[in-house]
Amino acid sequence: MGRKAVSYLLYSLSVAVTGLLLAAAVLSWRASFVAPGQGGFWATIALLMPAILLANLLALVWWLVRRKWVVALMPVAALGLNLGYISAMVQLPDFSTADGPHDIRVATLNVNGFRRLGSLSATADAVARVMQRENVDVLCLQEFMDGREFPADSIGALFARSMPYFVHAGSAALASRYPILDYTYVQFPDTSNDYLCADLLVDRDTVRIFSVHLQTSGIAQLRRRFRTDYNLGIPPVDTLLVAWESNSSIRAGQVREIRAAIDASPYPVILAGDFNDTPSSYAYRQMKGDMTDGFRAVGNGYGGTFRYLGGLLRIDYIFYGGDFAGVRYYTLGDDISDHKAVIAGVRFK
Asked: How many CA atoms lie within 13 A of 185 on its CB side?
């Protein structure tokens, strides 16, 4: 085979691979519209979206360098189709840290049982001090845990320095600068996941806050079990995929229940919490509905909120309804949990 024939073959293969990357990008975009119960393929390819888009970006650079403008349109189309996901993960940096006028500053944090700093009391105190420093008005906590030597009332007293109203149920808690008129706690059947819904009196307005913690991926638990039982650091791929599909389906059911409660609210709604899923997922799309993702509206930089896995995952969110406009949205670098605290300032329109 001559040099020209080899060159043509490699070119054709490169074009074919670029076409496959475009097809993968289309499928990963479509995945957020498909309920996980319809097959694990969709939940898996949604999770793979970052890798798929990175591969398309590399393909775009490759074809631009080679000046193959027509072929370069394929990765352009792949990236353009998924601009919604990209904007939910990356926003242009904003070097101004000044806040505009806001009515409510909301924070959400999965505190991981207040384990980060060794003792429950030391970690809870650090969380309270960080929230006081940031002038947070409402704090939503997931994986809340107290102990006999430092019960929930003692933790609430730490937050009372700046947020005197406090409710706790199950593994959820909420601290507020504003009076809490009423609250409802729901634990999902056969799981440790839950949500807390609280009505706050903000000046003369009632605002309904949802603090949610959706089903975990289950991968961390599998790794621990296989390491203990079989001395394997990584479980088999088929086992991981089955767990991911199963937990994605459970999350979808939880989302439908919370979404129905949000739609039935007579008051303006703010939704915050740990979704355990990414912006490419069905859970994210359904939970968001017609609400605003604060990061996409007024965030900046990279949106990752989970400290492990290279900090790549964005799984903690604050959304708000049409009664609000975003002022500022950011994550904190303080190492007080395995999740980063997320803060949003909003104002009434």
From this structure: 14
* Residue pointed to by tokens 């072929």: 71
Its pTM stands at 0.89
What dihedral do alpha carbons 224, 226, 229, 233 form, nearest 10°? -90
User: pLDDT for 261-270, tens place per residue?
Assistant: 999 999 999 9
Q: Supply the pLDDT for residue 239.
A: 54
> Which of 62, 97, 54, 56 lies closest to 77 in space, CA to CA?
56
